[in-house]
Amino acid sequence: MAGREAQRGAMRRVQVVLGHLAGLPAGSSGAGAGLQAAPCASYAALSSPDDVVVVHGRRTAIGRSKRGGFKDTTPDELLSAVMTAVLEDVDLPPEALGDICLGNVLQPGAGALTVRIAQFLSGIPETVPCSSVNRQCSSGLQALINIAGGIRNGAYDIGLACGVESMSLGSADNPGDISSRTMDNSKARDCLIPMGITSENVAERFGVSRKKQDAFALTSQQKAARAQQLGLFKTEIVPVTTTVVDDKGNRRTITVSQDEGIRASTTLEGLAKLKPSFKENGSTTAGNASQVSDGAAAVILAKRSKAAQLGLPILGVLKSFAVVGVPPDIMGIGPAYAIPVALEKAGLTLNDIDIYEINEAFASQALYCVEKLGIPMEKVNPLGGAIALGHPLGCTGTRQVVTLLHELKRRGKRAYGVVSMCMGTGMGAAAVFEYPGN
To answer: Could you tell me which CDD domains the record lists for this protein (predicted)?
Structure first.
């Protein structure tokens, strides 16, 4: 059994190497350049009509919770904006969808009512079914994996995965109905630890200093500010026209088309002045933690053969997914354990990956994961992460996929990317995607 697994792993590695050789430009003097025309090294030979592919993805801008442009916008409206946009962009008839799945954390029933209303607001007929899922901060990614699973098992050939959160209108304060025995079980009790305290636990246990956390936060802001200034988010953001109400009840119509949390003027000195948010003498602050936000994202997935039949583009290929459990009191370490599992399933190594989109729930945990895995910092969140952009809980996983694949497309070369995040109660998730090249 072990021998067969080793053989399969070796074959996957051979495929990856051949794929890299196939991606060398014509006339390249790189090692193996002469092999690129060989049929066995062609990308088409390594692809399968049964592959699950990402056809297209869009997102809203990310608004500042309770203060930003989406503070009075309901999640179904945010969701409808991106649902409508992705379908219109690729001219896909809504009735072609086999299923819809929404990732959401704060709405009742994980947004089960939200997604059904949003599909009708988007002109998607009642014949298209829908569901919702709550895997906390990975909900948006889990929605994508659920749709991919339906495609793989033959239930349908094309589907829509979404994520949405209005942290302005929703509340995370109510844990729901839990057993009176919760406090008698240490792991169960740890599930109730505030997220900020889990960040402090990671910082203390693994020696992640306040100075390093602030430096990481500054880098996130600088990357996001640069991306925004260069217009790198424009292709992924759907401008949303909505209504905001001021303190006096006055209403005005605005269009939100840029992420609101990016602070180009951030400095290390300014970050150093911020007081700890969760613990006296702690190291987690409002400046080195993710922002509370509002936003939505949507991704069309299809079986490769169906995409070809309908003439749809291919933005990426889903290669693997992994989800793992970790101790609840240090939940932030999840990506450090999920990423290696997902890479192994894809037959890839850490060095094969061009971009890592790792959710910055807190600088403490993101830094720990990056350093534990030995990922070069330049490969991490090249357009900034949740510290700068914001973290609308159920939206983030889908948003990361959209950002990753649009950035890989902008770069133009065949490449691999990873989306990963930690989750409250102690979990980590990771998915590997391939961009096939222009």
So the answer is: thiolase (cd00751)
